[in-house]
Specification:
The protein is an all-alpha fold. It contains 39 helices and 2 strands. It has a two-stranded antiparallel sheet with strand order 1-2.
């Protein structure tokens, strides 16, 4: 077994190939055989058949590999608990070799690990070299794959395609081998052969273990010079690992504890069936609760796969199978193109497919890295305006929205940002800040509307109707959301349709092009609201001091675009004189009032102190000292309030003066802030002498 010269058949059939490929290799210690095995696919037919027959015998008989026996002796006795003499073991006993393959990850001996890895690579390529699988699936192979020639993992793929029809023992053994082969590209022969150049170009120094180099290929598969054959193999791998989390070795290891805690009992691990994406969906849905950082990273990697190719989301792919065939059959699967196609036909989708796409949109809304279209369209703008903003929690999108009115902001990116903002109106879950702030209020007050998963803004409308009862944080985010809806106003939009008549009457009638400029319509309504409230409550003395800035998108703290003055919106004060909003539009405009104005009143410490005192006087005297809006919130100080305030100030000054005076008298201090020096003039000396 160690020397080609001692095997007459091998020597006779392979000597020409030995001279061609291994002429400088000395015989003995299996050196010539190793060389011929490395060139198996280049050998002549007779030689290749003889080499394959030799390998098939060796994987079943440890005695035929003297190097493995001597190199891995400690591992054989310690890990595999082998008892007896290696030289006297039974013929065709493959248990030791199988055991070494099972414990390959734990082997510390480098040379032993290399030899065992070679056995796994052979098994992944040809079922004849995979003893457990060959024996478990002998009947199934004859039944389903008899016409498939061994080699290049062809029989292996044939069996996986027939998974549901396989016998239980074959299906379970096949699954175990899939898990083993997913760990290393060296065990995925078709991919390794198809990606030879890509491995050199894009992933030269990336380790092959733990599927790291496969992840590298996955990240680079959309590069311009990436080969089609390699890309196809990478996509096949992505589809495979999306079926079951155990096919992803890093995720399986990193997420073990989180899966047990967050997703128990979702998958039967003993029947050989794939989980069908259930555990992956569970981890994705509970991503904010995952504790292990490496698990978070692996789940994020999976989410990037599913937004890129709909087939990588097994549950969505099943729900949308007929919809894809009907509407998107000619659309390529990669780079999110099928998702885009399905959303363009949103109103025509089956209910299950629509809900799955909505769920995926919810994930995309939180991280720009998951939004393929936005990521591509806003690549330059992100570098220019948001290079220091970390992805996650919609921070990058908020940054882009802040700067979209900048002169250097590209039109394609601006259009997609506006479209995303408008799309948010359909379902509250597409707005991450609102989703976080209002989760408890929605569960408590709008659960029925939320359960419908509608795209008609039902939860938004419920929150508006119950605005007085929801928490302050939710009120703030709801106001921002509605303000953004006005900022990007379009006719018949879900959130702002109650104001369409007023907008057409008061804003667009004078300036029809106003609708094409983000923020202009919202500014017009803000000015009408301000004038209407002044008229109804009397002009305050404090309000004119509040100025409103030019239109801008949300601040870094998450506020919304501020309203602009009548002049900057293109309408003069006369054009807005007498304008009155309808009741429904008034409510929306009031909720969406720019936060900067509210902060000018509510967050001002001095005003807050004054308001507190005036509230007490108001309650005690019954005289309206503070102007309030429809919700009872103090907006400004009335004229009577200013008179009362002056009285309070004068009284405070008098009390302070009296206290200071009493203190100085008690301490014996002078009331003057200077020292009085009195000099007495003495009479002349001669006068005194004359008197004497």
């Amino acid at each position: 077994a160690d020397d080609i010269r001692l095997s007459p058949r091998l020597f006779a059939k392979c000597m020409p190939d030995k001279r061609k490929f291994c002429k400088d290799v000395e015989p003995g210690n299996a050196r010539a055989k190793d060389c011929l095995e490395e060139h198996r696919k280049e050998l002549s037919g007779p030689c290749q058949e003889e080499i394959d027959a030799m390998i098939e015998k060796r994987v079943r008989d440890l005695r035929l590999d003297s190097r493995l026996r001597s190199t891995c002796e400690n591992e054989i006795f310690n890990m595999c608990a082998f008892q007896g003499d290696l030289d006297d073991m039974d013929t065709y006993d493959s248990t030791v070799i199988n055991c070494l393959q099972d414990f390959n990850a734990e082997i510390k001996n480098t040379e032993c690990k290399r030899l065992v890895k070679k056995y796994i690579a052979l098994a992944s390529e040809d079922i004849r070299f995979d003893v457990p699988l060959a024996e478990a699936c002998a009947d199934d192979r004859q039944k389903f794959c008899s016409a498939v020639a061994p080699g290049s993992a062809r029989v292996f793929r044939c069996l996986t395609n027939q998974r549901t029809q396989l016998s239980p023992i074959c299906r379970a053994t096949l699954f175990d081998e899939e898990v083993r082969f997913s760990e290393n590209i060296d065990f995925r022969i078709p991919m390794k052969e198809a990606c030879t150049e890509e491995l050199k170009t894009y992933c030269k120094d990336v380790p092959h273990d733990n599927a790291l180099v496969i992840s590298c290929l996955s990240e680079k598969k959309n590069e311009k010079d990436f080969g089609k054959a390699c890309k196809k193999e990478v996509q096949e791998y992505e589809h495979e690992v999306s079926q079951d989390y155990r096919f992803n070795p890093r995720l399986k290891k990193s997420c073990d504890k989180d899966i047990k805690e967050l997703c128990p009992g979702l998958c039967n691990e003993n029947d050989g069936n794939v989980c069908g994406g259930k555990v992956l969906r569970c981890l994705s849905d509970h991503s904010s609760q995952i504790k292990a950082k490496n698990c978070q990273k692996e789940v994020y990697y999976f989410e990037k796969m599913e937004v890129s190719d709909y087939k990588n989301d097994i549950i969505l792919a099943e729900a949308c199978r007929w919809d894809v065939d009907k509407f998107c059959s000619t659309v390529p699967a990669g780079q999110g193109q099928v998702h885009k196609c399905l959303r363009e036909h949103r109103k025509q989708l089956s209910e299950n497919c629509r809900k799955e796409e909505l769920l995926l949109e919810e994930k995309e809304s939180s991280n720009i890295e998951l939004n393929v279209g936005l990521l591509k369209a806003c690549k330059d703008e992100r570098k220019l305006f948001c290079k220091d903003v970390q992805p996650g929690q919609a921070r990058v999108f908020r940054c882009l929205a802040e700067n979209m009115n900048d002169a250097d902001f590209g039109t394609p990116c601006k259009n997609i940002v506006i479209n995303k903002l408008q799309r948010r109106q359909n379902n509250w879950k597409l707005d991450p800040p609102l989703r976080r702030a209002c989760r408890e209020d929605v569960a408590d007050k709008c659960a029925a509307e939320d359960s419908k998963n509608s795209e008609d803004g039902l939860v938004y409308k419920c929150l508006v109707d119950k605005y007085e009862d929801i928490k302050e944080g939710c009120q703030k985010e709801l106001g921002r959301a509605i303000h953004m809806a006005f900022f990007t106003w379009t006719p018949d939009a879900v959130l702002t349709k109650d104001c369409d008549e007023d907008i057409n009457k008061y804003c667009l009638a004078a300036r029809p092009n106003m609708a094409s400029r983000p923020g202009a319509v919202g500014s017009c309504l803000a000015n009408i609201l301000e004038r209407q409230e002044r008229t109804s409550s009397g002009r305050s003395l404090l309000e004119p001091a509040v100025t409103t800035p030019a239109p801008a998108a949300a601040s870094t703290t998450g506020s919304t675009p501020a309203a602009i003055t009548s002049a900057s919106s293109g309408l003069n004060a006369k054009a807005l004189q007498g304008a009155t909003l309808s009741d429904k539009c008034y409510v929306l405009a009031d909720i969406a009032e720019p936060p900067n104005i509210k902060q000018a009143f509510d967050n001002s410490l001095s005003f807050a102190l004054l308001k507190s005192q005036l509230d007490k006087l108001d309650a005690a005297t019954g005289i309206p000292l503070v102007n309030r809006d429809r919700r009872g919130t103090a907006r400004a100080i009335s004229l009577s309030g200013w008179v009362a305030l002056l009285g309070i100030t004068a009284m405070g000054a008098l009390i302070l003066f009296g206290a200071v005076t009493a203190y100085r008298r008690f301490r014996g201090l002078s009331d003057r802030d200077y020292s009085l020096v009195v000099k007495q003039q003495h009479p002349p000396a001669h006068g005194r002498e004359g008197h004497k």
